[in-house]
Amino acid sequence: MKSLDSQLTELAETVERFRALLPAVESAGVAIRDALRAGNKLLTAGNGGSCADALHLSEELVGRFDKERPSLPSICLSADPTLLTCIGNDYGYDQLFARQVQGLGKPGDVLVVFTTSGKSTNLVLALQAARLQKVTTISVLGKSGGKAKGLADHELIVPSNNTARIQELHTFVLHSWLSIIEAEYPGTK
After folding, report:
1. Could you read off the pLDDT of 110-136 as tens digits, one per residue?
2. Would the pTM of this model clear 0.70, i.e. be above it?
3. What is the mean pLDDT of the segment spanning 48-73?
4. Cα–Cα dist 87/173, whole Å
5. Does residue 20 fall inside a structural domain?
6. Could you tell me the CATH number of the domain that includes residue 35?
7. Which residues have CB under 8 Å from 99's CB, separation 6+?
8. Exposed/middle/buried for residue 168 (C-beta within 10 Å: 0-12, 13-18, 19+)
9. Which residues, listed in sequence order, are joined to residue 154 by a DSSP beta bridge?
10. CB neighbours of residue 166 within 10 Å
11. pLDDT score recorded for residue 187
12. Is 18 part of any domain?
């Protein structure tokens, strides 16, 4: 096991390398903000720990992040176990998210996928389905970007091979987007 000090040093080094991606983080956040402002919705998806990130982003939009404001339309495609088991049973695990994008995604909506490796076929197929539906796509990736690299309109690849460091920066990304979105509202804490 690495010492806590070495883990913190590794995180700090990853943050410094990530700093170059801040314009891309802002651009993707503005795309989400503008879609919501226009009356469209956000769809999010991920597997495992990345599912938690997808849920986190959606729940903060429907609920609240830092201040009072209207509820905003966001659906986490990883959230409904009955739907996931239905699609998984009838179409296979690879279709879990693409099938939902086909049914829920409309032009002007945004799909955000979180994956530390970019290898998840179900997320790759969701990105492809979104393109066909004219849904704006954002990939929040890590490592080399995997099979998902190059498939999204906006792409953020955390410069690390360590899953923990990637997930820590994914949380920073989603919190940054929430700050961009909530800056539009004059609400109070």
Report:
1. 999 999 999 999 999 999 999 999 999
2. yes
3. 96
4. 29
5. no
6. 3.40.50.10490
7. 87, 91, 129
8. middle
9. 138
10. 25
11. 66
12. no
Stated length of the chain: 189
- Which pLDDT band holds residue 39 (cuts at 50, 70, 90)? very high
User: Residue 183 and residue 181: Cα distance in Å, rounded?
Assistant: 5
Q: Among all chains, which residue has been given the structure tokens 């829920």?
A: 104
Match 């879609």 to its residue by tokens: 35
| Nearest in space to 106 (alpha carbons), one of 141, 132, 145 | 132
Residue 95's contacts (CB-CB under 8 Å, 6 or more residues apart) are 87, 88, 122, 125
The parent domain of residue 113 ranges over 26-182
Query: Quick check: is 126 in a domain?
Result: yes
In a domain, 19, yes or no: no
Q: How far apart are CA 12 and CA 171, in angstroms?
A: 15
Number of domain units in the chain: 1
Alpha helical stretches, state H, 38-162 = 49-62, 81-91, 96-104, 121-133
